[in-house]
Amino acid sequence: MWPSNSGSDTTSDPAPASGYDLPVLKLGLNTGYWAAGPPDGAVEAIAEAERLGFDSIWTAESYGSDVLTPLAWWGASTERVRLGTAIMQMSARTPAAAAMAAMTMDHLSDGRFVLGLGVSGPQVVEGWYGQHFPKPLARTREYVSIVRDIVARGGRVEAPGPHYPLPVAEGTGLGKPLKSTPHPVRDRIPIFLGAEGPKNVALAGEIADGWLALFYSPHHDDFYRQALTEGLSRDGAHHDLDAFEVVATVPLIVHDDVEEAADWLRPMYALYFRRHGRQGRELPQRRAAPNGLRRRSGKDSGALPRRQESRGGGGRADEADRGVGSHRIR
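Predicted structure:
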C-alpha cells in the first residue's frame, strides 16, 4: 500500500520527515525475464522467500518464456505466498484467454493468484505478437472490463468492442455469448496494471486493484502520487489511496563496487529506454513513458547510443549500454 498522511495505524515510529505514515512493508521476489534458459537458482530462491515470510512471487514475459508456465511450476511447491504475473502481456492473449488462465491459476493456488497486466511497447506488440499498438489506454480499459465480467461469472459475456468485441461481428455468424464453465474461487481476482506514464498510472488507480511500478523512484513520488490520486478519485474507482496496492520492482545487486554493480543493470534500462521507447517516430501515448522516464531518471535527456539488437536485457553492460549513466540507476 502507498504511504499516506491519513493518520492510519502504522508500525513505523517515528514518522518519516516526509510527513507520511508508512504501512508495513511487504517483500516479494520477481524472477524476471529468462535469458537463454531458466534463471539459475530460481527454485531455491522461491523456497527461501516463502520460508522467510515473503508476501509474493512474480514472473515476467516479453518475447521469450511465457509468464504463466513457470509461475504454475514453481508455485506448485509453495503454500502461502501470492503468485503474480508482472506482467502478462495483453497482446499475447485475448481477454477471455487471460481470464481463463487467471481462474485456473486461482483454483490451483487456492486463491493466491494476482493478475498483473500491461500493454508492453510497440516494438514487442507489433513485432512479436503481430498486434496493433495504438490506443493502449482504451484497449486496457476494455480488456480489464471483459476479464472482470468473465471471472465474476454473472452471466453470458458480451462486449461491444471496438477492440475486443464478443461475440465477434465478422465470421460465420454462429458465435454466441458464453459463460465460463468453471466457477471462480473468488468472483474478483486482483488485477494490477503495469504502468509508467501519468495517464496509464491514473488508469490503474481507477480500474485496477494495484499498480506494478517498474521504474518507481521516491525522488519523483509527487509525480506518481498525483497521477494515481487522480485515477483513484474518478467515479467508479474501487479503492482509496490507503487500500490500493503499489508493487515496486527494485533491482538489487550486492557488490563492493557501485559502478560494477550498475553494469549489471544498465542492459535492462537500455532495453526499456531504447526498445520500448522512440524508434524512428514517437507515439503520442508513449511520450511520458519511457521517454519521460528518461527525463525523470537523470539530469540529461540526450539520446542513448544505438546498439545491435543481438541479445536481451540481462548480463554485463557493453559499450552502448554505458550510455545509461549511473545517476539514472542509483
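Summary: DSSP finds eleven helices and eight strands in the chain.
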